[in-house]
């Protein structure tokens, strides 16, 4: 299996790296972390002007057709710089609309995302042990439309999102449906919730809120979104861990103890070697999942690959940011020191859509053909 990126993906990587390195400075991060929405809107606009948001979307919709591969390259670069922009929810949602939505939904939603003037977010989590694909939130048909009631937890980056993609149970099938809800619709209310990574999320309450279905009855739009979200989170976490390791290597080269650089101590070298091994495993399983998602794909194989990638990101990513913070000593817990942001991001991502235990339970269910308990 060839995991080399190719010219187009290398161009996306290099352009994203240039923009993020230039824009995401410690000073700018401090500014965004005390802002209302916790999103760097100027950086979002810069990424749109550079064509990086459009690059992942299909060519018939005006994009460059790079799909999940292009998105994962972009997300890795974001993770390395812990850049506060809502790439994973907005673009995984957009890819799902592009793949499963109607022509009217695509033409209404995707142009604004590509030019940076509007975006959407995703509501996949709920309070309690509910799985993303076994939601308690329910949708009932209402003439040509739908009505949704329920509560969604920690919806990422609601600031600036005009629409939300919501998973909800229906009476028409065993799997959930995926629904598009306007963020300011009647029956929609938001409660702000700050996360570990300083992002501002929100709990979303729906009371007979009007909605339109994405896809048709019996399709797999919801599964498509959750699967892509698993892979997208793995990509961000791979970048976060890689950026954290780079901080550690630089720190240990410069700091000395007993007249020797800390990097020459064997115990420290072992810690960083473990980090390197975990990151390489994260990267391999990530790109195996991206390959498994390429069309035409086998759903069972894609689900397994996405779950494996998410488990490695959850387990290996969390281990890496913990080790990196440890080798920084006392300054590693300084909340304004750059590596601390990587620790917070790694911690947050490791619990998004379930932790390592939940991932292993999902994988076991996929391998045995049993349902995951909700």
- How many beta-strand elements? 9
The CATH superfamily of the largest domain is known as Butyryl-CoA Dehydrogenase, subunit A, domain 3
Low-confidence stretches: none
Shape: globular
CATH architecture descriptor name of the largest domain? Up-down Bundle
Q: How many angstroms does the end-to-end distance come to?
A: 36 Å
Q: How many distinct domains?
A: 3
Oligomer: single chain
- The succession of helices and strands, N to C, reads HHHHHHEEEEEEEHEEHHHH
Q: Report the major sheet.
A: 7 strands, mixed
User: What Rg, in angstroms, do the CA atoms define?
Assistant: 20 Å
Could you say which structural class the secondary elements and strand pairing correspond to?
A: alpha+beta
Mean pLDDT: 92
State the CATH topology of the largest domain. Butyryl-CoA Dehydrogenase, subunit A, domain 3
Total DSSP helices: 11
Query: Strand percentage, roughly?
Result: 15-25%
- Percent of residues in helices: 40-55%
CATH class of the largest domain: Mainly Alpha
Spell out the key features of this protein.
374 residues, alpha+beta, Butyryl-Coa Dehydrogenase, subunit A, domain 1, Butyryl-CoA Dehydrogenase, subunit A, domain 3, 3 domains, 7-stranded mixed sheet, two-stranded antiparallel ribbon, 9 strands, 51% helix, globular
Gist of the model:
With 374 residues, this protein is of the alpha+beta class.
How would the blueprint of this fold be written?
Blueprint: H1 7-23, H2 26-33, H3 41-49, H4 67-81, H5 87-100, H6 103-114, E1 119-123, E2 138-142, E3 145-155, E4 161-168, E5 177-182, E6 188-194, E7 200-213, H7 221-254, E8 256-257, E9 260-261, H8 266-293, H9 299-327, H10 338-349, H11 356-368
Parallel strand pairs: 1-4
Antiparallel strand pairs: 2-3, 3-7, 4-5, 5-7, 6-7, 8-9
């Amino acid at each position: 299996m060839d995991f080399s990126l190719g010219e187009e993906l290398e161009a996306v990587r290099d352009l994203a790296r240039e923009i993020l390195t230039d824009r995401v400075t410690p000073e700018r991060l401090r500014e965004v972390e005390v802002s209302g929405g916790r999103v760097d809107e100027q950086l979002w606009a810069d990424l749109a002007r550079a064509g990086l948001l459009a690059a992942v979307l299909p060519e018939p919709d005006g994009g460059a057709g790079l799909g999940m591969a292009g998105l994962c390259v972009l997300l890795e670069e974001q993770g390395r710089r812990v850049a506060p922009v809502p790439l994973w929810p907005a673009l995984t949602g957009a890819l799902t609309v592009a793949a499963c939505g109607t022509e009217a939904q695509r033409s209404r939603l995707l142009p604004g995302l590509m030019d940076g003037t509007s975006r959407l977010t995703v509501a996949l989590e709920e309070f309690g042990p509910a799985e993303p694909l076994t939601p308690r939130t329910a949708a009932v048909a209402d003439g040509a439309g739908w009505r949704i009631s329920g509560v969604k937890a920690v919806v990422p980056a609601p600031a600036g999102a005009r629409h939300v993609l919501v998973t909800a149970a229906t009476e028409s099938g065993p799997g959930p449906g995926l629904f598009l809800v306007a963020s300011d619709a009647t029956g929609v209310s938001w409660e702000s919730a700050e996360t570990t990574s300083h992002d501002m999320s929100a709990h979303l309450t729906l009371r007979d809120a009007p909605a339109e279905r994405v896809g048709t009855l019996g399709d797999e739009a919801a599964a498509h979104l959750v699967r892509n979200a698993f892979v997208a989170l793995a990509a961000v976490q791979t970048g976060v861990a890689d950026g954290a390791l780079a901080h550690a290597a630089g720190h240990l080269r410069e700091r000395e103890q007993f007249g020797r650089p800390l990097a020459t101590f064997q115990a420290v070298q072992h810690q960083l070697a473990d980090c390197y091994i975990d990151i390489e495993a994260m990267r391999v399983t990530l790109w195996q999942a991206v390959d498994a998602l390429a069309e035409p794909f086998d759903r069972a194989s894609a689900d397994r690959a996405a779950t494996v990638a998410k488990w490695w990101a959850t387990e290996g990513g969390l281990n890496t940011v913990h080790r990196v913070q440890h080798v920084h000593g006392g300054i590693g817990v300084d909340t304004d020191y750059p590596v601390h942001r990587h620790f917070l991001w790694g911690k947050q991502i490791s619990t998004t859509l379930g932790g390592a235990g939940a991932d292993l339970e999902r994988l076991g269910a996929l391998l045995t053909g049993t349902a995951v308990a909700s």
